[in-house]
């Protein structure tokens, strides 16, 4: 099956093709084999025309699948700041840049209450906020995929998302992310692959904090490394259930010390400190 989409001339074709490929691949009803392909088809008056070639199992669901792809394209283009242009004959006046939302004020309060950011002063926290991106995801879109490499973490500003893991060939729901929750910090701070899949249950807004931003803060405040390694060790223990199950405080302390040392080494390696 084929579907055509137009994009602004100012955006490099490879960037648009990557965005369209992600949008189509993630759409419900699109088969993984043969894989989705995206082509530049034409240079029209007001847009570069791209064609998405995809496969589907049930041809009676063609309209539903196309709807899912187009919906994903809209959200993906918004995140990548790719414009679907107006026809050249249309006069389009834009008065200043339109902000996605006023989410940074909400994010500021969330991060100030999050233990991961306790070691940062107000100026450093502001640097993190102003250099991070706010993204929108539509219902059913994956924010992160279990097993993928991860160099960023997220703050849920609006909406809810399901957290799941793969076990014995099936997907098992293990939790949910709601407004105010942070996720993806282990991958950001340790370089480990994503440990779960997070998928939007409705329209979501998230703040994405990238590794370069965190690296800059940690270089300014290396004392944060000890605090972060201690926090990661504690969360690792809680995740494994050791804190609740341990009957010997000494055994727990030894395990926590080992984890702290391990995470401290990883922080130095990941952020090249």
> Judging by the overall fold, what is the CATH architecture of the largest domain?
Sandwich
The CATH homologous superfamily of the largest domain is named Jelly Rolls
Q: Portion of residues in helices?
A: 40-55%
Radius of gyration: 22 Å
Shape label: globular
Q: Tell me, rounded to a whole number, the average pLDDT.
A: 85
What is the number of strand segments?
11
Task: State the low-pLDDT regions, or none.
Answer: 97-101
- Helix-strand sequence: EHEEHHHEEEEEEHEEHHHH
Specify the structural class: alpha+beta
Largest sheet descriptor: 4 strands, antiparallel
**The top level CATH class name of the largest domain:** Mainly Beta
- What gap, in angstroms, lies between the N and C termini? 50 Å
Number of domains: 3
Beta percentage is 15-25%
CATH topology of the largest domain: Jelly Rolls
| Strands in their spatial order, largest beta sheet | 4-11-6-9
What is the tally of helical segments?
9
Summarize the structure.
It is globular and about 65 Å long. A hairpin with a 4-residue loop joins β2 (37-43) and β3.
Topology record:
Blueprint: E1 2-7, H1 13-25, E2 37-43, E3 48-53, H2 62-80, H3 103-112, H4 122-130, E4 133-137, E5 142-144, E6 152-158, E7 161-167, E8 170-177, E9 182-183, H5 185-190, E10 197-200, E11 204-210, H6 211-220, H7 224-240, H8 242-245, H9 249-270
Antiparallel strand pairs: 1-3, 2-3, 4-11, 5-10, 6-9, 6-11, 7-8, 7-10
């Amino acid at each position: 099956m084929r579907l055509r989409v137009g994009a602004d001339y100012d955006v490099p074709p490879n960037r648009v093709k990557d965005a369209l490929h992600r949008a189509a691949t993630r759409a419900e009803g699109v088969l993984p084999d043969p894989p989705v392909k995206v082509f530049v088809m034409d240079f029209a008056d007001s847009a570069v025309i791209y064609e998405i070639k995809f496969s589907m199992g049930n041809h009676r669901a063609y309209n539903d699948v196309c709807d899912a792809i187009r919906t994903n394209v809209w959200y993906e283009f918004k995140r990548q700041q790719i414009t679907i242009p107006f026809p050249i004959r249309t006069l389009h006046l834009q008065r200043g840049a339109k902000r996605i939302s006023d989410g940074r004020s909400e994010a500021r309060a969330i991060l100030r209450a999050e233990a991961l950011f306790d070691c940062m002063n107000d100026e450093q926290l502001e640097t993190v906020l102003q250099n991070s991106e706010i993204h929108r995801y539509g219902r059913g879109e994956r924010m992160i995929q279990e097993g993928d490499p991860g160099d960023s973490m997220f703050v849920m500003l609006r909406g809810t998302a399901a957290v799941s893991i793969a076990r014995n060939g099936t997907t098992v729901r293990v939790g949910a992310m709601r407004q105010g929750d942070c996720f993806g910090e282990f991958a950001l701070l340790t370089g480990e692959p994503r440990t779960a899949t997070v998928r939007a249950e409705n329209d979501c807004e998230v703040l994405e904090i990238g590794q370069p931003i965190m690296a800059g803060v940690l270089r300014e405040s290396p004392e944060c490394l000890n605090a972060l390694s201690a926090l990661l060790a504690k969360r690792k223990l809680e995740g494994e259930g050791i804190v609740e199950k341990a009957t010997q405080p000494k055994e727990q302390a030894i395990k926590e010390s080992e984890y702290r040392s391990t995470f401290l080494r990883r922080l130095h390696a990941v952020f090249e400190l």
